[in-house]
């Protein structure tokens, strides 16, 4: 079978609506955001569970556990929203890869949705059970964690299968017999372990941010803050070391140890380690973490591009059919609605968290709130009008 011919034939004959490199850059950016919240959720849940187990004997753990329960809850909702973006971008430029995976692992793709619903519902159950001191809270929380990890394993398997076109035929029709069960599941344990291990440094550095932020809020004693700071430092340091080792072994199996991007990631990890040990400003440490996440996201894409180029598939020569209305609608939504609304929510949350008693919005937040409502109404009107005009133009 000529794999390159198959891959190129499976491309969307309508072409892509804008320059492929833009979709690629957006994929790299949005996947980094997705995984950041995945890692915070996966790292926050164990801390919440420990908090639950120790709450009757340790007030520090009791408080931290309650806060991490909320952090994990919110992270899951953000990771789901942010997961949609890279999913759309990958489907535009690597459509064949994603759809083949969804065929050979169809049963797991459907199961993924139910596993995620189960995991998230159990987390809410844990939240209420913990609040009411129910004896089964811990058990419910552990099952929720296992389900979240299961969802991550599935996501990883889909990504891993999608970059092995040479195996697709074997998986689809082993020994020439078509297998329509959709039960294929192929993981790369090193890549998966590395990805999941990153939850430790991400959560550790988040705890350092938490200390810097809450140190200016009411109700946080110096003892509690130093407890969280020490814990965050420990988790981040051990996590960075473990992730670095797993990363080195993984890239070694890919023969990429000397790749400039790999070296840049190693340097970034060393800088992070230094900053965590030196107790540098945690917000600056987080900026370095964001750069590291973007480098890792870029490396995933370089690995995929290298594999695909072996088969003569390059996203850069994907047929293009620029569709300006779509592009303008997308960019104005992304920048106009997205940036204003996110800016408003973040500014409000930041300030409200530091206010004693009831929070009243100041002039900036009020302006941002009005702008968000105004822009969203205008956006909705344009969206509906545009759709209605298009439907009438095409049918009448
Ligand atoms: C708790 C739930 C989830 C976890 C733990 C999780 C975890 C992961 C992990 C570990 C990867 C990296 C896989 C690898 O490169 O080997 C990944 C990739 C990805 N995830 Fe998630 N994920 C979750 C939910 C979601 C959801 C709900 C969506 C979409 C709405 C999503 C979309 C994606 C996409 C598009 C990729 C990249 C796939 C590719 O490059 O081929 N994820 N996820």
Description:
Helices cover 79% and strands 0% of the residues. The chain has 396 residues and is mainly alpha-helical. The chain folds into two domains: 3-322, no CATH class; 323-396. It is globular. The two termini are 46 Å apart. Protoporphyrin IX containing FE binds at residues 31, 34, 38, 79-80, 83-84, 86-87, 90, 116, 148, 151-152, 155-156, 159-160, 162, 191, 195, 300.
- How large is the share of residues in beta strands? under 5%
C-alpha-based Rg, rounded: 23 Å
- By DSSP, the count of extended strands is 0
Please give the alpha-carbon distance between the first and last residues.
46 Å
H/E series, N to C?
Answer: HHHHHHHHHHHHHH
Low-confidence stretches: none
Query: Helical residue percent?
Result: over 70%
- Total domains, how many? 2
What is the residue-averaged pLDDT? 96
Number of helices: 14
Structural class: mainly alpha
Notable characteristics:
14 helices; binds protoporphyrin IX containing FE; 396 residues; mainly alpha; 2 domains
In short:
This protein is mostly helical and 396 residues long. The protein is built from 14 helices and no strands. It has 2 domains: 3-322, no CATH class; 323-396.
């Amino acid at each position: 079978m000529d794999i390159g011919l198959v891959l190129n034939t499976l491309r969307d004959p309508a072409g892509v609506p804008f320059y492929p490199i833009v979709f690629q850059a957006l994929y790299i950016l949005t996947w980094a955001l997705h995984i950041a919240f995945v890692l915070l959720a996966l790292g926050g849940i164990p801390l919440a569970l420990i908090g639950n187990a120790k709450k009757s004997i340790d007030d520090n753990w009791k408080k931290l556990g309650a806060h991490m329960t909320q952090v994990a809850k919110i992270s899951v909702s953000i990771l789901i929203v942010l997961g949609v973006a890279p999913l759309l971008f990958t489907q535009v430029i690597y459509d064949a890869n994603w759809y083949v995976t969804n065929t050979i692992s169809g049963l797991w793709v459907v199961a993924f949705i139910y596993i995620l619903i189960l995991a998230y519902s159990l987390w809410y159950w844990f939240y209420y059970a913990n609040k009411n001191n129910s004896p089964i809270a811990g058990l419910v929380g552990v099952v929720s964690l296992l389900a979240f990890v299961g969802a991550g394993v599935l996501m990883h398997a889909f990504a891993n299968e999608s970059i092995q076109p040479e195996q697709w035929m074997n998986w689809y029709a082993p020994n020439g017999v078509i297998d329509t069960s959709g039960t294929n599941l192929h993981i790369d344990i090193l890549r998966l372990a590395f990805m999941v291990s990153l939850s430790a440094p991400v959560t550790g550095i988040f705890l350092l941010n938490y200390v810097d932020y809450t140190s200016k809020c009411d109700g946080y004693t110096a003892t509690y803050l130093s407890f969280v700071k020490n814990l965050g430092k420990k988790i981040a340091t051990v996590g960075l070391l473990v992730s670095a080792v797993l990363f080195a072994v993984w890239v070694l199996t890919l023969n990429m140890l000397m790749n400039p991007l790999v070296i840049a990631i190693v340097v970034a990890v060393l800088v992070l380690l230094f900053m965590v040990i030196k107790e540098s400003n945690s917000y600056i440490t987080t900026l370095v973490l964001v750069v590291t996440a973007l480098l890792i996201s870029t490396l995933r894409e370089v690995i995929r591009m290298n594999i695909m180029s072996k088969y003569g598939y390059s996203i850069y020569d994907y047929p293009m059919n620029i569709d300006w209305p779509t592009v303008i609608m997308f960019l104005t939504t992304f920048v106009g609605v997205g940036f204003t609304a996110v800016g408003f929510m973040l500014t409000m949350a930041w300030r409200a968290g530091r206010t004693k008693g009831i929070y009243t919005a100041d002039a900036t937040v009020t302006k941002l709130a009005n702008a968000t409502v105004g822009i969203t109404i205008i956006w909705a009107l344009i969206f509906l009008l545009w759709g209605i005009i298009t439907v009438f133009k095409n049918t009448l």
